[in-house]
Amino acid sequence: MDERHPGGAGARVVTFQRDLDQMLREDGQQIVLRRMVGTANRAAVDCTCWASVRGYQPHELAGAVIQGDSEVVISATDIIAAQWPGGEPITSPPSPTDPRVPRAGDQLVIQGRTRAIVSAAPIYVAGELVRVNIQARG
Predict the structure, then answer these.
(1) What is the C-alpha to C-alpha distance for residues 109 and 130, in angstroms, rounded to an integer?
(2) From the centroid of its chain, how far is CA 52?
(3) pTM for the full model?
(4) What is the pLDDT of residues 9-61, one digit of tens each?
(5) Domain assignments of the chain as residue spans, ordered by start
(6) 3-class SS at 12?
(7) Which CATH number fits domain 9-137: 2.40.10, 1.10.3470, 3.30.910, 2.60.40?
(8) What's the rounded Cα separation, in Å, for the pair 47 and 49?
């Protein structure tokens, strides 16, 4: 058992999540996470999230990362609280296609500008979604 977290893995998840949320609220900005749903009558399903947004450094421009892309870090707290995107059951443990994880084709609205999500890498701690690292373009 971890002496810093006598409650075990669950306590570590809570501590990690709380620390991330605090950092994003103190140093981050609010953005909108958007998924378009439907076929003929498309509708936006939005979730306001706290995020850290930064441009990639020149030495990070490789592979699929191009100049102008941004790295966006969001906490799962806002996604879970909003039950975003809704309509899809969450399995335990999460499946490889966890609907709460943004995916290519979803969008971010950052400072009024709509950006496309190129990729998203979820971070799970003790089986719980806690953070998502996103590559955004546009």
Answers:
(1) 21
(2) 10
(3) 0.83
(4) 667 778 888 999 999 999 999 999 999 988 888 899 999 999 999 999 888 88
(5) 9-137
(6) helix
(7) 2.40.10
(8) 6
